[in-house]
Amino acid sequence: MSLKTVLILLGLALATIFALVCVLLTRERTPRTCQHLPLEQEDAEDDQSLVFADLTPEEMSQVVRYLQGHLGVPLVEASRAKPSDNCIASVDLQVPAKAEVLRFLDGGGARPAREALAVLYFGKQPEPNITEYVVGPLPRPVYHRDVTEQKYGGKVPYHRRPVTGKEYTDINALIQRELKKAPRFLTACCESDGTSLVILTTAPRGFKSGDRVTWFVLFHNVAGTGYYLSPVGLEVLVDHGDLHVSRWQLRQVFYNGRYFASTGDLEQEFVAGVLEVVRLKQPQADAVQGSMKPRRPPGSPGPLQFEPQGPRYSVRNNRITFQGWSIAFGMNPNAGPRLFDIRYRGERIVYELSLQEALALYGSNCPGGMSTRYLDGSFGIGRFAYELVQGLDCPYTATYVDRHYLVESDTPKTNQKSLCIFEHDSALPLRRHFSDSQSLYYGGLRKNTLVIRTISTLINYDYIWDFMFHGSGAVEVRVHATGYISSSFFHGRGTDYGNRVGPHTLGTMHLHHIHYKVDLDVDGQLNSLETQDMEYEFVKDPWSTRNTIERPYLHRKRLEKEDEAAFPLNVPMPRYLSFVSPNPNKWGHPRSYRIQIISFAGKHLPTSSSMERSISWGRYQLAVTRRKEEEPTSTSIYNQNDPWTPTVSFADFINNETITNEDLVAWITVGFLHIPHAEDIPNTVTVGNGVGFFLRPYNYFNEDPSVDSPDSVYFSSEQDVGACGANPLACLSSATACAPRLPPFHFGGFLNL
User: Percent of the chain, pLDDT > 70?
Assistant: First the structure.
């Protein structure tokens, strides 16, 4: 072999060795991809939860086709329907009666018939009205029955219907026509011909039953930012109560503290030089107040939550299971998220946990602001829960679920990825102790929580709805408010009603009150209500009788009647209030779940108000009533547009019935007063703007159930704490030495708008 050949072979060998070293070094730097481990096999009764499942798009379409062919009247698609037409307003699940469901779930009874609830607006009738039909059985309906009088005690008047998108479009066209009558004024005040201005509705619509007269507030519109912070000082009152759009009228105009009969009168005063005009420039996109565009380039990524061996929860159809928890979930297009059949360790704790209503009540010295009392259920809390942004609205690796609805259309719509489910490490111990006396040891458990989340955008505000399930057997319900504040044009004594947050922008004070229904079934359906609190007693010390001790003692009380169990808003209530079972735990105490409310609610509307009964649920931070099938909700979507004669008045639920050993429901109000300030620009932050409540086991178990958690940690001074077998935390370095499998980022939330 020649020297040249030897040198060539030696060179190739060195190159091969170098390449292998590079590969090995690279493999050490690049962690393996995380491998998801299979979860335990779920039980065969999983499909039982489908009794609560939201309607599928195909079921919705079947209901529409059935109604179109069996009502005997012409139906116009709601997105095109005039007030004088008939249309299908919405189709949703008709939740079966509780007794039927429990016979099916617990007693081996037949599966309840699957039915839909269809709401129709009949404008083309001698007596226009709103009618509700139950349609079934699904998926191939063959019957329908009118349940309107059964539910509401009579016909629902037509004027109570929520405003449709088509109606808003026609109102906007009317306002644009009227604005053309004041061209010189608009040029001077707003650098606009009117087409660059947008309208914001207020509600309710008038002052008495039958009114459909609405103030609309005008704002500068700038693409890519919230117009809610750019009022121009102009507001108009529109009467849109007539069935014929051609007869709608603009009744009044407000500008900068003054009222006018028409836009023509406004123009006339401007031309005459007797109108004080605040000249506003058209905002520019790059400098507009309230822009959410980043002002700095992106930095390094923050901490990322991921599951190194895959999710430890399971989602199958509408059922979630996680470390002893089982929950059936869904979404009402009006009221929003609803959960059913919540069980822990196989025992039902809550039959129904559902959002009922969200109230936003404003103050201002402008007519639109001062008359606003939004009842968001009538707009659609569930319908406007849009796609969630992975990595921001929810953890990147969360499970995202589509929701379907049929509202103001004959075709179902889908909000993709509009509900998320994830396990959350709160970076806080659920419990822990470090022993520094007698024996030396440490014991603890991470506070890992299952979270079900959805976010609703109701015009300017975004509500984050969370339902959390803890390893201690506790349920936590929480809502955060963010998004844009609503504002009025700053004039006169505006700061009596809020804070100035811009050159001509008043952040108007308002309250957010949220109402929930909690149908607790603690160790069975029959429960009672017990309160516990502390009192002091003054006693002589028993060992000398010379000194006085102020001794706390426990004061227990069983509440017998509904009137006793209705606790007014913002009045101190017993610190411990529990749903108790007749059955004791191992230590002789009634098995119970405690309700603990976290709220900073504002003042409820005075009961002397003509519209107070429509939101009478807000009188109480907590009210406990006997459960009745005919009292499924605390409010109605029809209350918004006729609050003076409410379709459902919660105050009527409380009639002093016995609540001892009965099937009971807790109705809970949480909320906060919001006085907008400079830091609400561009958006209200979630910090400090979260309220909610807990359902906590209280003597329900014989000990804290989390002691059975496989995540528990314990080690003593006599152990090698760095050994994986002695300390699970020591296993993390190897168990998590992998890279999460992150799917490519995708967002399709703008597609359905």
Answer: 94
If asked whether residues 318 and 406 sit together in one domain, one would say yes
Residues 420, 350 share a domain? yes
Both 215 and 322 in one domain: the answer is no
Which residue type is seen at 407?
V
Amino acid identity of residue 650, one-letter, is F
Rounded Cα gap, residues 437 and 439, in angstroms: 6
Report helix, strand and coil shares of the chain as percent, to nearest 5: 20, 40, 40
The string of pLDDT tens digits covering residues 168-206 is 999 999 999 999 999 999 999 999 999 999 999 999 999
Show the tokens assigned to 572.
């101190």
> For 155-284, where are the E strands, in sequence order?
156-157, 197-201, 213-220, 231-239, 249-255, 258-260
Let me know whether 137 and 183 are in one domain. no
Structure tokens at 715: 């080690």
Tokens of 201: 């509705």
Residue of 670, 667, 690, 688 lying closest to 679 (CA atoms): 688
One domain, residues 342 and 197: no
Pair 77, 112 in one domain: yes
> Which parts of 228-295 are beta strand (E)?
231-239, 249-255, 258-260
628 and 648 belong to one structural domain: yes
Average pLDDT (394-409) is 96
Asked whether residue 25 is assigned to any structural domain, the reply reads: no
Query: Of 187, 319, 168, whose CA–CA distance to 238 is shortest?
Result: 168
Beta-carbon count within 10 A of 468 CB: 18
Q: How many domains does the chain have?
A: 3
Identify which of 642, 639, 638, 641 has the alpha carbon closest to the alpha carbon of residue 615.
639
Other Cβ atoms less than 10 A from the Cβ of 3: the count is 7
Residue keyed to tokens 């990825």:
417
Domain membership of residue 510 (yes or no) is yes
For residues 388-399, b (16+ Cβ closer than 10 Å) or e, as one string?
Answer: bebbebbbbbbb
For residue 79, tell me if it sits in a domain: yes
How far is Cα of residue 654 from the mean position of the Cα atoms in its chain?
26
Beta strand segments in 585-725, E? 590-598, 620-626, 662-674, 690-698, 713-716
List active site positions.
376, 461
Given 650, 675, 698, the domain boundary residue is 698
Q: Per residue in 525-563, pLDDT tens?
A: 999 999 999 999 999 999 998 999 999 999 999 999 999
Residue appearing with tokens 């103050």: 363
Is 300 a domain residue?
no
Assign residue 647 the CATH number of its domain: 2.70.98.20
Mean pLDDT, the chain, whole residue set: 93
CA angle 403, 404, 406 (to 5 degrees): 150
Q: DSSP assignment of 392-433, as one string?
A: TTB-TTSEEEEEEEEESSSS-EEEEEEEEEEEEEEEEEEEEE
Q: Which of 104, 133, 156 is the last residue of a domain?
A: 156
Give the tens place of pLDDT for each residue, 211-234: 999 999 999 998 888 999 999 999
Domain range spanning residue 253? Answer: 165-272
Q: Is the dihedral of CA 405, 409, 413, 418 positive or negative?
A: negative
d(CA 144, CA 134): 5
The CATH number given to whatever domain includes residue 138 is 3.10.450.40
- Cα-Cα-Cα-Cα dihedral sign, residues 312, 314, 315, 320: negative
Q: Strand, helix or coil at 578? A: strand
H-assigned helices in 281-375: 367-370
